[in-house]
Write a structure and sequence with these properties.
six-stranded mixed β-barrel; alpha+beta; 10 strands; Cathepsin D, subunit A, domain 1; two-stranded antiparallel ribbon
């Protein structure tokens, strides 16, 4: 029997990393790649060493089974931190189950592909070790899941955005607004405050010959206390589903940072209440 040591190491490393990641995610653990890769490396050293050992020494079937799956059962111990022993047990069980399932499937697919020099211990397709294929599948699944999550989150944001028009004197500026339940800012009169991108405010006050009146709005966050400059505008019109809602005499604060690309105005949640909207004439 021919053993391609480089393929065997790569095969074990990739397969162990992929299956450890799947096992940790199955029990909803925190999957840190550096821990998974180090554990996979340790598993590869043990697996490769044991494979070479079996080339020179006969091992009874029962002992072989115990060593393989016994080591596999304890391998996830260093792949992630577990607060409960039960979670670790379930992670180990998941890893063993994945290993057995993938081993069976891959053996069924790639077995019977002998080389000119005889059977090989590293199952390959087009020269690619099966473990690499498993890892590639898991990586693609992870990328696909994260992409789908981002698309879903962006869809939720877009579904909450509202078309707005801000009026100040003879100026009118259109903007996409987002009703944020976390916006609890109040001005000196105790009224709710909208937060706008700097560009929006500059467009509203670009033609004023003198500096408009302003006030400082206190903002409290986990990082401490800060202030935002705020101005009063005549009104904001908000449109949703063919209906409109007008709020007169609104205080608009200038955001110190650029807002998300989907919107340039953060509205207080009360501005977007459905009962305030009326059919457009």
């Amino acid at each position: 029997m021919v053993v391609y040591l480089d393929l065997l190491i790569l095969d074990n490393l990739c397969a162990d990393a992929a299956l450890l990641y799947c096992a940790v995610k199955t029990v909803k653990g925190e999957a840190k790649w550096y821990r998974i890769l180090l554990t996979a490396l340790w598993g590869t050293i043990l697996g490769t060493g044991y494979t070479i050992f079996r080339l020179y020494f006969q091992v009874p079937g029962a002992v072989d089974f115990f060593i393989k799956y016994g080591v596999a059962f304890f391998l996830p111990m260093t792949a992630a931190s577990f607060k409960k022993g039960r979670t670790y047990f379930l992670c180990s069980a998941a890893f063993v189950a994945y290993m057995a399932a993938f081993a069976g499937v891959l053996t069924a697919i790639f077995a019977g592909e002998p080389t000119a020099e005889g059977d090989t211990l590293a199952y390959t397709v087009y020269g690619i070790p099966s473990g690499v294929l498993v890892l590639a599948c898991v990586v693609l699944a992870v990328i696909g899941t994260k992409t789908a999550k981002k698309i879903s989150e962006r869809g939720k944001v877009l579904s909450c955005t509202l078309e707005c028009e801000l009026y100040c004197g003879d100026k009118r500026v259109r903007a996409q607004g987002f009703a944020d339940t976390g916006n609890r800012l109040r001005d000196g009169r105790g009224r709710e405050v909208a937060v706008a991108d700097r560009d929006i405010v500059l467009k509203l006050f670009s033609d004023f010959s003198r500096r408009p009146a302003y006030e400082k709005i206190e903002v409290r966050t986990v990082n401490g206390k800060s202030f935002m400059i705020a101005f009063q505008i005549d009104r904001i019109k908000i449109y949703s589903g063919g209906k409109e809602h007008t709020i007169e005499d609104v205080t608009v604060a200038v955001s110190p940072h650029a807002l998300a690309g989907e919107y340039s105005l953060i509205l207080p949640p009360s501005f977007a209440k459905e009962e305030y909207f009326r059919e457009r004439r």
